[in-house]
């Protein structure tokens, strides 16, 4: 009897659970290799040798100039945006206590989208970069509205989710209104809405970098609090956790991360939803391991999506957000079936 | 305590009477609500016919409905009247579909826009419009049926409604995520096809601004089919509301009721979306408001939902003309802005969330 249980336990603890560092390290190496390859994909073919030369600092040839000016910011943004979205999604799922939650749920995406569109369409010809602060603020405002509307002696996770859906719908209506009002500039706005890393420069990288550098380590340090919150409000309070305050802080971090990601890249769907799932499947439910893993999966997803978007039909660019939606949607549906049983 | 025994029975009795669940709704109340809704509808119709870029006097309306000799009469007959009729039809279709869906899914948050039914219809219609631009009219409606059916059925199955009651939140999250997938696919189609962007975008918001008799003719047969079917199903739906086991015990074929109800939802939503676009939130909020007013018996709920939905779209259309004249905001924007606070209110009530 006992021996069978022990045997099962041994079989169940995979390599990943016993030595998470090894697998996480190899995921990181995979991401690095992919990034290196990603530097060479694009409308103009750049050889891997040129990429290497450019990275070393030799910017004499035109090819290496392309790598430094156009490809490098994109790859860096893939890392930052992927990390931000995935960590934000992992926190959101932990706080809402529902595996279907995503950063979009709390209204960030639609709020950012609305604010960004307002600026893009009100002042046509504005460079995309100027949209970033507006979209960032828009996302925060939307999330604030959701939290306030859901607050009723504490914001229960379910209310947050439902109110988020409603507020998102209202902002969505606003976005559509703007689209209808200004049919001439719609194409650029729509591409931004779908989420793309096209034409981003180092400025965008610097706009998201501080948030990721500060908040992601903070969240990893707080990972145990997420584990405690996952036990339910009553038990968490019994363990001495100030539930409402912790939830508010964690939500705030998640929202800031998501808003900064949406602001620089537009609304890239499903990364925040499925990367945490992948991480949990491989590394188990403890947030201390699953959050960094989610970040790595997010980076991988973004790298692949952006590379496919650039490489599938050059010189035509398929927005990365579309690729993640097409790849992530079915995976999400599969998850839904699986968790339903 | 002992002193109050003499007086206790009376208040206890009346309190008991109040608490007793009301199965058949108060006839008088239903009459009043119906009368009020009809008045609101008639006022709305008159208002909607008379305003616009050329103001038409109310006294001219009765004659204008039947003949078209002067310019004003022509405007009423060929532009404003179809618009009003279409608004009523679309509102009725979506509201009744929402009520049906809430009954079939046994879930207060089930609604065509939440469950991805509308988004599915939209995706297939946009696909048809962008890939085969000449396609319009009757085939589109069939395509919309297909899209609505595929999206709605898959969300229901995936959210696990085959296995008894699903939690409202799970259903809502599943539906919203599926919708967002469908919407982003739709956006992509629009990005890649720049020629048809304008008309598609306007249709995408949902509204009856460019309605013609042609649209009404497409919608009407399906609407009649859907409404008659829904009204005929009122009693089985009432039984279904008692729970699956109870309904089965009372001799209901639960699966058949569900199947028929879902089919009607798809017909109503597909038809409405294919002519007017996805007008937001009608199917979610109208049934809740009407249920508040007249109770939850589907015998009276469904017809009143039809009236209320029509009124809501009609007034949203009127408001849409006032926001920024002469530009017209699509009615879908207005209904979304009205619907979102009501949804928030619903979510804040414990009943839905617990």
What would you say about this model in short?
The complex is a heterodimer of chains A (341) and B (354). Chain A is mainly alpha-helical and 341 residues long. Chain A is built from 16 helices and no strands.
Polypeptide structure, described:
The complex is a heterodimer of chains A (341) and B (354). Chain A has 341 residues and is mainly alpha-helical. Chain A is built from 16 helices and no strands. The N terminus of chain A is likely disordered. Chain B is mainly alpha-helical. In chain B, helix 4 runs parallel beside helix 9 and helix 10 crosses helix 14. In chain B, 74% of the residues lie in helices and 0% in strands. Chain B contains 16 helices and no strands. Chains A and B meet through helix 8, helix 9 and helix 16 of A and helix 7, helix 8 and helix 15 of B.
Task: List low-confidence stretches of chain A.
Answer: 1-11
| CATH homology group of chain A | ABC transporter involved in vitamin B12 uptake, BtuC
CATH topology of chain A: ABC transporter involved in vitamin B12 uptake, BtuC
CATH topology of chain B, anyone?
ABC transporter involved in vitamin B12 uptake, BtuC
What is the annotated CATH architecture of chain A? Answer: Orthogonal Bundle
Helix count, DSSP H or I runs of 4 or more residues of chain B: 16
Topology summary:
The complex is a heterodimer of chains A (341) and B (354).
Chain A: H1 2-12, H2 15-18, H3 20-38, H4 48-56, H5 62-96, H6 108-122, H7 131-150, H8 157-181, H9 186-194, H10 202-221, H11 223-229, H12 233-238, H13 243-265, H14 271-283, H15 287-311, H16 320-340
Chain B: H1 9-19, H2 27-50, H3 61-66, H4 71-105, H5 117-131, H6 138-158, H7 168-192, H8 197-205, H9 213-232, H10 234-240, H11 244-249, H12 254-276, H13 282-294, H14 298-322, H15 331-348, H16 350-353
Helix pairs in contact in B: 2-4, 2-14, 4-9, 4-12, 4-13, 4-14, 5-6, 5-7, 5-12, 6-7, 6-12, 9-12, 10-14, 13-14, 14-15
